[in-house]
Each structure stands twice: as C-alpha cells, then as structure tokens.
Amino acid sequence: RGQIPRAPRGQTHAPFPGKRHEMVMDAPGVYDITLTASNAEGATTRTEKQMLVVCDADSENGLNFSRDEASLTTMQPLWEGTSEQMTVDWWMNASTQGHTTGMGHSRGTWQMSADKHGRLTFSADSASVNSGKGFILAGSWHHYAVTFDGGRVCFLRDGELCHSDTLMRDKQVVASLPATPSLRVGGQDSPMNAVIDELRVWKTALDDTALQACCNAPISDISAAERDGMLVLYYSFNQNGGDVRDLTSKANNGKRESFGPDGDAWGLSTGVFNLNFDSKPKGE
Questions:
Q1: Residue 284: which residues within 8 A CB-CB, separation 6 or more?
Q2: Is the pLDDT of residue 199 over 50?
Q3: Secondary structure class of 257 (helix, strand, coil)
Q4: In whole angstroms, what is the distance from residue 273 CA to residue 56 CA?
Q5: CA-CA to 114 of 20 to 30 Å: which in 37, 83, 88, 127?
Q6: Contact, 154 vs 89, CB < 8 A?
C-alpha cells in the first residue's frame, strides 16, 4: 500500500487594508477571521466564517458538471478481470441542488451516487452500502474517497474515515468487484452536479494515512505512484478543452459529452488542497 509524499509547503500571505496589517499563514486550512476595532468610545468585534482558505499547492483547473447530461467516460477499462481492492479519491465542490457524485459504471459492476441528503451510496455486483446522511457537504471544497477491500467499504472525507460497512448480497460478502468496461462520471442517469478536481483511481485500498500523504497536493512522481500505490487513473483537469488527459502511463483519456462551451466546463479550482493534517487551526 503505497505512501506518496506530499509537496513542500510554502507560506501564504493575506494582506489587509492599511500599512500595518498583514497576516502570514504558514499552515493550510479554512480559517474564520475576527477583526476588532476600538477607540475612546469602546470596541466592536466582527467574525466572518470561513473567510480565508490557505492551500498547500496550486490546483489550477477543475471540471464543472453544470448540466445533468454532462458526462466523462474513460476510453478503456481501468483493469482487466475482477478486483478485490480499489480506491477512488477526488476533490469536489458539490452543488446545493439535486443529486451529485454520479461515478462508476452500473450497479451490476460498481457505481456511486449521492442523494439530496448527502448520503453517498456505493453499489457493486447489485449490492449496496451507504455512508449515512451528511457525508457529502455542498457548497465548499472537500476531499472524498471510497475504498473497497474484499467486501469492506470505507467512506472518507478530508482524509478521515467517516463510515465503513460490509457489502452483502443474500447474506454473503461481495468480496470482489466485477470487470468494468469503463469509468463514467456524470450523465443523465446518475448526474454529477459538482465541480471536481484531482480524480484518481487506485487498484488497492488506501488507508487514511496513505490518503493523507497524497491528497493535499498533486502527485509529483506518477511513475512511483503507479509502481508503489497501484495508481491506474489520474485526471488533474489542468487543461481548458478537449478530452481529459490521463497522466498515468496508461493514457486512458476521458471523453467529455454534453458539457456545452469549453468556457463553462473548465475553471480555476481555488480552494482545493486546503487540508491540515499537522495541527488544527484555532479558527481566528
């Protein structure tokens, strides 16, 4: 189970109006900002929630699924035959409307989708488990991952395990995933309704430590990730048109359909890579 190193962290500066006010943030995170003003008459304080987002790296562009019918489909299978392990991880800013997170192929192979309550359902070989309500958080960037390991399904958000369950059918554990002709993201039957970035598929079940090592920055050594972490697909979306390029040696590019003008599909994914695994921000 590969450990993929994170990129070096830099400092981020957040200047405020006036010559004497500057904040220097040397740790990623989503911060509340509290300002206090005072004079001879007294003092007043105002706090703005989630006002400052500090990121570990530049995420460049993401892909915007602004239409239910918009879909992205790999041009070849992820692997041949069945698999006993898999990890799918991605960054996502989910819409506040409708269903989200349509990804996979079908319930008979494997598929994921979320309802309006933020409940993500993972289906494979016509059996299913779900994350429980509130797993998908709409309106802000979060990192999500789903792992499959011999029937055990784990749902992780922002590098931490939120829920796990065993995939069962007729009281028997579904221990492997059927062969899958392609990976499809979005589409009318299972829409995405989100902006996504840094979509990766691994043919192994990464634990939270391995995910934390690679989810907060682009993968710098892709060949090592393929060799040590069994990375089989990597879409960074750092482009502005055409088919989506797979950065792995498989070159399993993705075909986009029904997105409309390229200007609506691609855009900056500012806010990705904002996680802090070293310390917890105080929020002020």
A1: 31, 32, 33, 34, 47
A2: yes
A3: strand
A4: 5
A5: 83
A6: no
Contact at 8 Å (CB) between 229 and 2?
yes
Among the listed residues 111, 106, 164, the one whose alpha carbon sits nearest the alpha carbon of residue 135: 164
Quote the Cα angle for 261-102-215, to 5°.
Answer: 90
The Cα–Cα gap between 207 and 154 comes to 9
Q: What does the pLDDT look like over 122-158, one tens digit per residue?
A: 999 999 999 999 999 999 999 999 999 999 999 999 9
Mean pLDDT of 218-226: 96
- Encode pLDDT of 103-125 as tens digits: 999 999 999 999 999 999 999 99
Phi/psi for 262 (5° steps) reads -60, -30
**Mean pLDDT of all residues belonging to the chain:** 85
Amino acid present at 166: T
pLDDT score of 98 more than 80: no
Residue type, 208: D
What are φ and ψ of residue 61, in 5° steps? -100, 155
Q: Which amino acid is at 9?
A: R
User: Mind listing the pLDDT tens digit for each residue in 29-47?
Assistant: 555 455 566 767 667 776 6
CB 231 within 8 A of CB 219: yes
d(CA 141, CA 268): 12
Closest CA to 92 of 113, 123, 77: 113
Give yes or no for a contact between 86 and 202, defined as CB atoms under 8 angstroms apart: yes
Q: Is the pLDDT at 14 greater than 50, yes or no?
A: no
Pairing, β 22-25 against β 29-39? unpaired
**Residue 142 in contact with residue 158, Cβ under 8 Å?**
yes
The separation between the first and the last C-alpha atoms of the chain, rounded to the nearest angstrom, is 37
Tokens, residue 77:
């299978």
